[in-house]
Structures are given as C-alpha cells and as structure tokens.
Specification:
The protein is of the alpha/beta class and 300 residues long. It has helices at 25-30, 35-40, 61-81, 95-107, 139-143, 149-152, 176-185, 192-198, 200-211, 245-254, 278-291, and strands spanning 6-12, 45-52, 85-90, 113-118, 166-171, 188-191, 217-223, 261-267. Strands 2-1-3-8-7-4-5-6 form an eight-stranded parallel sheet, with helices on both faces.
C-alpha cells in the first residue's frame, strides 16, 4: 500500500467565524476514537502542532488572525521545504490565509501555487464589500491580494495566488460583490449546479488541469459546509444540496499519490452541531483518503 505520512496541524481558532464552536473542532478530531481506523488501514500520521486562540477579545479580529496566521504560515513553510505532506484542521476558514501564505513562502522562487477551493461560499469579500464583517468570508480575496494589509502581507508583500491558478468547487451561496470580484479576475467557479450536472469526478479533473497549469504544485482547501448538511451537519453555516461526502472522499483518494500536491486543509468543523458524529467520521475518512490511494472510504 502506497502510503505517505500525514503531518497534522490543529488550528483551533474561531475568532473570524460565525460562531466559536469550530474552535473545538481540531481538539475533537485529535481525540477521536475513529482515528483507530487510520491505524487499522496503516495510514501514517502525526500531530505536529496545535495553534489555539488565547488572545484577549478586545483586540481587533484582523490582528488576532494576523498573529495566528503568521504562526501557521511559518509552520507550513517549514513543512513544505522539508517535503512533508501537511493537513491543517480548523477552526474557521481564515486558517487558509496562513496555510497558503506558508506554501507560497516555501515555493514562490520555484513557481506559482495552484489551489482548489471546495466550499459552499466564495469567501471572496473584502472589508469594503462584506455584509457580516467576518474575516472567514474573506480568505480567497485576501490570498489574491485584496483586503486588510495585515493579512495580505503575511510573510510577503505579494498576492499568494494568481487568479488563473485558482478554482472554486461547490459554490451555492454568495453575494454579488464577491462574485463580481472573481468574475473580473476570471477565476473559474464550478457552481453546485455544474457539479450536479457533470459529476464531482469530471469537475475535479478539470480543476486539477487548472491548478497544474504553469504551477510548481497545488493544494486543496475544504470547507466542510461544501458537503450536503444531511451527511455532514457539523457546521455553523449549512447550505442545502451540497457535495456528497463519498464523492469528495473518492476524488481525494485519487490524488493521494500525486507528488505535486503540497497538502490539504479541512476547516469549519463545529462538533456542537454534529449529529451522531457523522461529520467527525467523514473527516477521518478524508484523512484516510489523503493518506493512501488504496483506501476504500466506506469502511465501517
């Protein structure tokens, strides 16, 4: 069985999100009884770091995210330089600002970074366009160089992504302002209607072509709310008619042996909304899929 070691980083921060529950997500996963399944399948993994929010709440959220994003970025940069396959477990999706800034730091001298963003939302607001004010709705724009300077300049005063090297999958809830930004930048968006029409496998293969075109490698950032909430209810902002969890598991398994993939990120898991630990079980299955191309994600 062709396995690689998963280097797991817990990003137990929810300051930028809709609720604080997803701060507990990484801790629940680290203590999950379902990790025993990884051992049975001979999936190699180790917990490398725990980043947890302990900042006083009177600080501006952007400063909190800057501090923890910088900490995460430095960890990820070192792992990529050491050719270690990482998986960041959030926490809210502002983790992506640190994660992919770190990958950029490690590889920008060799080439561009590609990114597949799997999410029910576009997460492409700026401080000027946001309706909620929450930074977990801004990481895509931030990585493209739009937003708070404290966050767009983590490790480097440069955009971490080029629009042509980015694509979004599973989008079904957004505001016009963020759509306008991505359309102006010509970012490829696979709306949920297209995923349902063509199938996740076909869409994912096209996404791989996009992120592998003139890049040094790519990563995958997954918001759990991309999944259908009937299968994965443990999220703060559920959107109906999402991606089937098994379909996501299958495509993740298909890239397990791809050496061009730097790593992955799984964010926005809120265990307080997780009925019968459905979401927790699926996340462990996703880890199994990422760890080995030989895994059947339907284990019991």
């Amino acid at each position: 069985m062709d396995n690689k070691k998963l280097h797991l980083i817990s990003y137990a921060c929810a300051s930028a999100g809709a609720e604080m529950g997803c701060q507990a997500g990484p801790v629940v996963l680290q203590q999950s009884s379902y990790l025993a399944e990884l051992n049975k399948l001979h999936i190699l993994y180790q917990w490398d770091a725990l980043i947890t929010s302990a900042i006083q709440s009177d600080q501006p959220v952007k400063n909190i995210i800057q501090m923890y994003g910088l900490q995460l970025a430095n960890i990820i940069s070192q792992q990529v330089k050491q050719q270690q396959y990482f998986v960041v477990l959030g926490g809210d999706h502002s983790s992506a600002i640190g994660t992919w800034s770190g990958v950029y730091d490690a590889c920008y001298q060799q080439g561009a970074l590609g990114l597949i963003w799997i999410d029910a939302h576009m997460d492409s607001h700026t401080p000027e366009t946001t309706e909620s004010g929450r930074i977990h709705g801004m990481p895509v724009a931030t990585l493209l160089g739009y937003g708070y300077p404290e966050l767009t300049t983590i490790l480097h005063y440069a955009p971490k992504l080029h629009p042509k090297n980015l694509c979004l999958i599973g989008v079904r809830s957004f505001e016009q302002a963020e759509r306008d930004l991505l359309q102006r930048l010509q970012v490829r968006i696979f709306y949920m209607e297209e995923v349902q029409r063509r199938g996740m496998q076909a869409v994912f293969q096209e996404a791989l072509e996009i992120v592998n075109n003139e890049t040094i490698g790519y990563g995958i950032s997954i918001d759990i709310d991309s999944l259908d909430p009937r299968e994965a209810p443990g999220v703060d902002v559920p959107e109906p008619n999402g991606i089937h969890a098994q379909d996501l598991c299958d495509v993740l398994s298909s890239i397990a042996s791809d050496k061009r993939c730097f790593g992955a990120e799984i964010a926005e898991f809120d265990p307080y909304y997780d009925k019968n630990k459905q979401t927790e079980q699926w996340i462990i299955r996703f880890l199994a899929a990422l760890g080995s191309s030989q895994v059947n994600c339907c284990y019991n």
